Amino acid sequence: MTVTNTFEPGLRTKPEVVHAEMNAIAFAAKHGVATDQCIMITTHSPCFECAKLIVQSGIKAVYYEQAYRLTDGVQFLKECHVVVRVIDVGEEEVRETKAP
Ligand SMILES: [Zn+2]
């Protein structure tokens, strides 16, 4: 079975699609990778449902490049003392993260 994240204009996710944040946390759980005190880097700010899971999984910071159409997820993260930052995920920065 193939699961594809497809977005309609305005970033409205189809109900059957798992958001990238939830998918990443589920992947970590499935493969025994601890998420406590990790930093999550995403293209868009998390929605409220993803934000709840991020808090409960112990992720300490979320960095994203673009704002999602709803901001309640970011507000919730801040209320729960998760660090939230907007970053530029350009080619140059990606190369920097791979450097030793
Ligand atoms: Zn979400």
What key phrases describe this protein's structure?
three-stranded parallel beta sheet; binds zinc ion; single chain; 100 residues; 4 helices; two-stranded antiparallel sheet; disordered C terminus; alpha/beta
Explain what the structure shows.
Mean pLDDT is 85; it is low at 1-8 and 94-100. Helices cover 36% and strands 20% of the residues. The relative contact order is 0.16. Strand 3 (39-44), helix 2 and strand 4 form a beta-alpha-beta unit. It has helices at residues 20-30, 48-56, 72-79, 91-98, and strands spanning 7-8, 12-13, 39-44, 61-66, 83-86. With 100 residues, it is of the alpha/beta class. The chain is built from four helices and five strands; from the N terminus they run E-E-H-E-H-E-H-E-H. A three-stranded parallel sheet has the order 3-4-5, covered by helices on one side. Helix 2 packs parallel to helix 3. The protein binds zinc ion. Residues 19, 21, 46-47, 49-50 line the site of zinc ion (ZN).
